[in-house]
Amino acid sequence: MRRRLVHLDLKGAAPRAQYLEQVLPLLRALGATGLLLEYEDTFPYTGPLELLRAPHAYSPAELRALLSRARAQGLDVVPLVQSFGHMEFVLKHREFAHLREVKALPNTLNPHKEESLALVKAMIDQVMALHEDLQWFHIGCDEVYCLGEGEESKQWLQQQDNTPEKLFLSHIKAVATCLASSYPMVTPIVWDDMLRGMSEETLAGSGVPQLVQPMIWDYAADIDVEGKVQLLEKYRRCGFSKVWFASAFKGATGVNQSLTLVGHHLRNQLGWLQVASRSPADVLEGIALTGWQRYDHFSVLCELLPVAIPSLAVCLQALENGGYSEKVKENVEKLLGMSNLEIDTFMSTSLGTFPGSNILTLVTQVSFYLKSSVDELLERNRYVTGWFSPYHRKRKIIHPIIMHHFQPDAVSLLSKWNAVVQDLQAAMEQVFHKCTVEEWMEENVHPSLQKLQQVVDDLDEAIKAQN
Predict the structure, then answer these.
(1) What would the DSSP string read from start to end of 10-44?
(2) Do 176 and 212 touch, CB atoms closer than 8 A?
(3) Going by C-beta distance under 8 Å and a sequence separation of 6 or more, which residues neighbour residue 226?
(4) Which one from 62, 143, 149, 438 is the annotated catalytic residue?
(5) Of 202, 191, 200, 197, which Cα lies nearest the Cα of 167?
């Protein structure tokens, strides 16, 4: 695996540019050779595309500085711009809604409209203009749901020999051809999931294998090694000269996962190493370690980047060393400044010295203990369930003796968690924009903390009513 790209999924919780710059030397030291940057709505689009920019999008100056820092570290950069499926960040806007494959759904682009290709070309051109010396450009094309279900597609499919597969391939071919004519030195990469089920005849006859490199992705802990080897051989027979693999270091074990289970992701890399050992060396271009931040544009956040750095470190080092051993573990601990790396349980709350390690410590604390400690008090403390139930709270009824059995506990628990959350908020604000901090807190902290706050407030009210 000569090339190891770290995928940064910026469609959620996009870190501040300064934080990413701090992390680059660590990525290099851990064995990364490049970055796969999935910008989505964080790219500083201009002109008619300006409305695609999120309020927290990077500025051109920030990106130039980041890309120049990456080059200085010897890291290749591969931009990723979706050009078919997962186009929600574009097609959700009224101005582009007429380019949807299915009128009501913002996920897939209509491949029949010339304007669709012009839109993709405009996005690629703007991204290209900010990057220098690119060798690859990832055009996405995974999970193109509902393709063939739009009105124009239905008509097209009624014509003889037309199939959804040919429709998919013709759009990829159009985008790749467009890219090749403007940027002949750049090779397009595509996710492979839409190609897997196609016959060799269909693929080979499409002309697509001569234009793109497929990236075979699988994030499971127990990947089907034999199946992958056969798939790679099939792609080779169809005419693809090079193939990429894609594993995951985070964002693949649960849509709202807050902590990363390192063991799952390590086993995923070890599976890919087995596939690599059985693949012709001249066919494998490299591997991308994906780090998903949302399952799609509208879903909640999964694990934050700083939380998953130990997982990324273990995965990169395993790939660089061809496996995992005590020596690899020690090296990771040294590079992260961690005393005891947990692989098969969630990370303990021990602090590391890597950028953002305080976020990992505090998120671990919140994820493990906040909900459980609040539930323990509100649902399993007999004084609360027996003498301060919702019925009592509504009517402000409290037995003065009973109150002393749990009021101090409730107040002390609230002040403890308020302090932790305050520290976490301050740590997160160093790395993330306000909108990310707000979203993470609302999803992971507020439900339990507000319940606890409410009980303490109701208790005060009830005591006042008694007096």
Answers:
(1) TTSSPPPHHHHHHHHHHHHHHT--EEEEE-GGGS-
(2) yes
(3) none
(4) 143
(5) 202
Tokens at 344, concatenated:
């098969």
Ranges of beta strands (E only) in 31-92 are 34-38, 76-80
| Token pair in block for residue 323 | 């496996």
Residue 53 DSSP class: -
Identify how many contiguous H helices and E strands the chain contains and give both numbers: 18, 8
Name the residue among 245, 184, 179, 234 with its Cα closest to residue 209.
234
Residue (of 80, 85, 123, 122) closest to 105 by Cα position: 85
Q: pLDDT tens per residue, the chain (467 residues)?
A: 899 999 999 999 999 999 999 999 999 999 999 999 999 999 999 999 999 999 999 999 999 999 999 999 999 999 999 999 999 999 999 999 999 999 999 999 999 999 999 999 999 999 999 998 999 999 999 999 999 999 999 999 999 999 999 999 999 999 999 999 999 999 999 999 999 999 999 999 999 999 999 999 999 999 999 999 999 999 999 999 999 999 999 999 999 999 999 999 999 999 999 999 999 989 999 999 999 999 999 999 999 999 999 999 999 999 999 999 999 999 999 999 998 898 988 766 668 999 999 999 999 999 999 999 999 999 999 999 999 999 999 999 999 898 889 999 999 999 999 999 999 999 999 999 999 999 999 999 999 999 999 999 999 999 999 88
* CA atoms of 38 and 241, how far apart (whole Å): 24
436, two tokens:
């990310």
SS3 143: coil
pTM higher than 0.85 for the full model? yes
Q: Is 288 helix (H, G, I), strand (E, B) or coil?
A: strand
Return the amino acid letter for 86. H
Helix residue ranges, H only, 347-445: 357-365, 371-380, 382-387, 390-395, 400-431, 434-444
Asked about 143 being catalytic, the answer comes back as yes
